[in-house]
Amino acid sequence: MTTRDIPHYRLFSQHIVASRCRTPAEVVAALGAIQAQDYPGALWSIALRLPAATEADIEQAIADRKIIRTWPMRGTLHFVPGADVRWMLELLAPRIIARRASLFKQLGLDAALFKRARKLLAPALKGGRQLTRAALMEILKRDGINVSGINGYHILSGLGHEQFLCFGSHAGKQPTFALLDEWVPKARKLDRDAALAELTRRYFISHGPATVHDFAWWSGLPIADARNGINLAAAQLRRETMDDTDYWMSPDLPEAIEASPSVHLLPGFDEFLLGYTDRSAVLDPRHERRIVPGGNGVFQPTLVTDGQITGTWKRTLSKNHVEIAVRHFTPRKKSAKHPAAPAAERFGEFLGVRARIR
Fold first, then answer.
1. Engineered SS bond to 15: which of 19, 265, 279, 351, CB 3.0-4.6 Å?
2. 332-to-267, 271, 284, 327, 351 alpha-carbon distances in Å
3. Other beta carbons within 10 Å of 186
């Protein structure tokens, strides 16, 4: 294995090519977690790893509580398996809570306020009810709680870290929230070492080849915990050393993966790019600004050609069509059919409309 092989191994490990998953829940469980602050993009992240899955199929898995949207790592929204949401939050949320302590103090978000918020919201959500953010904010505001600015968001995410609430199904285009105890009452628990070993195993099997620093960044854990996780899970992983750097991956990864031509349309926050702190294997550093214009943390959807990010794309959705505008980083040779046409057709099937590409 050489560093030039890394992109092709990652396409395989992440189930972007040769997917071995059959359901949305299997995809999310295989990857450990899928970044989900961009809700429509996250649905596509799951579906592109499944043959013929539609947007409705992924939303049904959410409604069936097989996958849960919450804030398990780095304070960022992710989809996680419903069965695993408890142990993931117990492992990862304490560090996020500690890091936000000074901010919460500035905002006046103390333990008494969160206790008051739970007391107000519990009866409103009890019995399986799902309410929009606006409805929850109105309940808090009526009782004199300041939800202006970023306060409202941090109250909800804080209650998510406390395992009090999580996202429910969407109501139209609006997300809703539900009580975690009612939404997934059978979520399992693990002790800390078992949870750390399991998260480490899932990450490297689904994201490998990857380094300990990649895992530490992705999980939000301290580097010491990341190293401990590798020690705990090492018997279930394979190690390769390239350029004096240790890479970890699935022991079942084929010894050689042929670099077959493939073109993919990935959403902006897909794990293929966001799952690593070092992205140079798949993205030429010269093009980083084109993926995150202005360095504002908003990642553009990417065109991936033979394992390399070679452009960006944007969708325009109408009643019966989706138009996909592709911008290549470097000029390409003209051809009768755009190389991304099959990927565009698949995206159209996902949305249930015809796709046009330009």
1. 19
2. 22, 26, 17, 10, 28
3. 8
Q: pLDDT under 50 in the chain at which residues?
A: none
Quote the CA–CA distance of 276 and 187 in Å, as a whole number: 28
Alpha carbons within 13 A on the beta-carbon side of 86: 15
Q: Which residues pair with 239 in a beta bridge?
A: 248
Phi, psi of 184 (to 5 degrees): -135, 70
3-state secondary structure 255-315: CCCCCCCCEEEECCCCHHHHCCCCCCCCCCHHHHHHHCHHHCCCCCCEEEECCEEEEEEEE
Give the span between the Cα atoms of 29 and 23, in whole angstroms.
Answer: 10
pLDDT at 260: 62
Domains defined for the chain, CATH in brackets:
3-183 (no CATH), 192-249 (1.10.10.10), 263-357 (no CATH)
E strand residue ranges, 63-181: 67-73, 76-81, 131-132, 165-167, 176-179
Q: CA 152 to CA 277: how far, in whole Å?
A: 30
Q: What's the pLDDT at 293? A: 87
For β-strands 131-132 and 245-249, DSSP reports them as: unpaired
Q: What is the DSSP string of 207-260?
A: H-SB-HHHHHHHH---HHHHHHHHHHHGGG-EEEEETTEEEEE-TTS-S-----
Are β-strands 321-328 and 354-357 bridged in parallel, bridged antiparallel, or unpaired?
parallel
pLDDT digits (tens, 9 = 90+) for 245-295: 999 999 998 876 766 668 999 999 999 999 999 999 999 999 999 998 877
> In whole angstroms, how far apart are CA 188 and each of 21, 82, 99?
22, 9, 26
**Residue 187: strand, helix, or coil:** coil
> What's the pLDDT at 35?
96
Question: Residue type for 185, please?
Answer: P
Q: What is the pTM of this model?
A: 0.94
Peptide bond into 301 cis (omega under 30): no
